[in-house]
Design goal:
binds zinc ion, single chain, 4-stranded antiparallel β-sheet, alpha+beta, 4 strands
């Protein structure tokens, strides 16, 4: 489970907007551009993978 404190300091690396935590998918989604960030071992992977994001759309 991701801590609210950690979530509150994270932001989208692309547009700097806030992120929503989606527990059912275990990922973070940007509230503005919709980019998704995976969470591994409770650590958000804040690296933008352009190809992977294109696949998910
Ligand atoms: Zn964004």
């Amino acid at each position: 489970m991701l801590s609210p404190e950690l979530l509150s300091v994270l932001c989208c690396t692309v547009c700097k907007s806030g992120l929503n935590y989606l527990p059912e998918k275990n990922l973070l989604r940007c509230t503005s551009c919709g980019r998704e960030y995976k969470i591994k071992d409770n650590i958000p992977i804040m690296i933008v993978d352009e190809k992977e994001n294109e696949y998910e759309r």
